[in-house]
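Bench notes, afternoon.
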Amino acid sequence: MIASMAPDYGFGNSLPVFVAEKHDSYKAAAPLFLANLNSMVLDYVLRQKVQGQNLNLFIIEQLPFIPAQRFQEKLGSRIIGNFIREQVLHLSYTSVDLAPFARDLGYDGAPFQWDEKDRRHRMARLDALFFHLYGVERADAEYILEQFPIVREQDEKAFGHYRTRELVMAYMNAIAAGDLKTTIHA
């Protein structure tokens, strides 16, 4: 699954597009839904259901999404949903095309600079958090992460080791301790 926020453009018939009404629930829910769609754990589940290259809406409707009330829980001193919204804003708002989305999230500044290292850490922390929200234990998380051979190959080519797995597992430790602030140095 590759999901993203997109400005108002035309899309083809084989691309599921979710259009939310502009109101407070959209502002609160859209970034959480986007993060959930892009989590590796949900992608793993999706891979068990999809038989080809095309993702139909009826398959998305069958996916196990995190219930909205879970995002209101605290982890350490942070409300989980607020933390996720902040990460999604940084990961999504890298172009002025998405300025309306950024404003909807309460941000009126310039787009964020694309920073590979920062993005890698934000995504790994989000994946670790979604493993936590889904109740996936460490051993199962390690197994799931091994089911992404292209990610592993790209990491090994760039870093000499499977950095994504190492970061996600390290952030799982931090999250288990109620820590959403620490940046892992790997």
